[in-house]
Amino acid sequence: MSIVQSAIERLRKVAPQREEPRPPARQRGTAREAAPETRAPTPVQWRADLSVPECTLEKLCAAGLYPSNEYVQRVREEYRGIRRQIISASRERVGDAERTVGPVVLVTSAMPGDGKSFTAVNLALSIAREGVRDVLLIDADTVRRTISTACGLAQHTGLTELLAGKSSSFRDHSFTTGVPRLYVLPAGDPAKHGTDLFSSARVGPLFESLRTTIGDGFVIVDTPPILMSNDTAVMTDLAGQVLLVVRAGTTLQDMAHEAVARVHEGVPVGLVLNGWSPLLPSERKTYVAYDEYR
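Below the sequence we write its predicted structure tokens.
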């Protein structure tokens, strides 16, 4: 797996029809310099009675969400690179209003099968592995529920109950796992709560609660593919930053451009390119437009 990361302006450079001027370097620097000093955050008080110790690396590997032994070291190194960029971006401010990027990172893809759940899990593991930050991994893909199933939480209440107003705190549904500092909020049962759960009026307060409560931790949200779900577009508009996962030889360039176009232009977007190899001529031809991001 080869990793690619970029700002949304770089991706739009590939598509001339969506090209926008970059803000002057002085303005960007001034915005970062204007960031206020932060105090030491209060640790999150996770519920000790909510635990799923069987959610281990072995279980995640069996579910296809963690690499086999022969690839573990390589994947860990690649996600360390992504982790560094995510943490750095979370401290910056963007736009005229100097909106803080913050700790909520949404992971999506254009279409199914690109590896977004694998990316969400391994990014969360990489941050937790540092041993200094708590990470809440949210399964917001209420259709496939991949992460909930892999962790043995498919039948538990979770995100949909929060959005439906059945609970006031995400901590009432967040489970301690067998991995230190990694917590999981399962998808819940959308069938019991009707439609339109993923509206701005419901998602916005939840994300704000996460931002103000998680301290120096991170929230990684696994969502449905953005080209197949209007719910994902709502969540991306309210997230701090977005990771778009594309797969070499599978995701078409126009799909990637359309996926980015559905994210509000004020939200930073990075790319993760799965399955890319410079040794395959067909992939170099298909993804020549992405070469500048390697």
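The radius of gyration is 18 Å.
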